[in-house]
Amino acid sequence: MKTVKFIVIGVTLFLFFYAIMPHMGASYDLMFTFFMIGNFLVLYMVYAVLKFGEESKGRWSEGDWYDDVNKKYSKAND
Predict the structure, then answer these.
(1) CA-CA distances (angstroms) from residue 1 to 35, 43, 65?
(2) Half-sphere exposure of 11 (CA within 13 A, CB side)
């Protein structure tokens, strides 16, 4: 999971930097290059998360919708 975490953080920082480039006065050619690189980085990030990410232990069929909330949503309240 550490590998995926660093990939997600790295790609997010790259895309954040790309998003603020017009405000910093970057040239069109540089922004276009970052745009093209960003597309491949997003595809690689999706691949890495699907290939190397950890699967959730909870199951939707058992009422576990989110890993960060300890609630059962699909069970009837008694």
Answers:
(1) 27, 18, 21
(2) 18
pLDDT band at 67 (very low <50, low <70, confident <90, very high): low
User: Distance between CA atoms of 10 and 26, rounded to whole angstroms?
Assistant: 21
What's the CA dihedral at 5, 7, 10, 13 to 10 degrees?
Answer: -80
Task: Give me the amino acid identity at 72.
Answer: K
Give this prediction's pTM. Answer: 0.70
Q: Which residue in the block uniquely carries the two structure tokens 């790609």?
A: 11
- 55's tokens: 């699967």
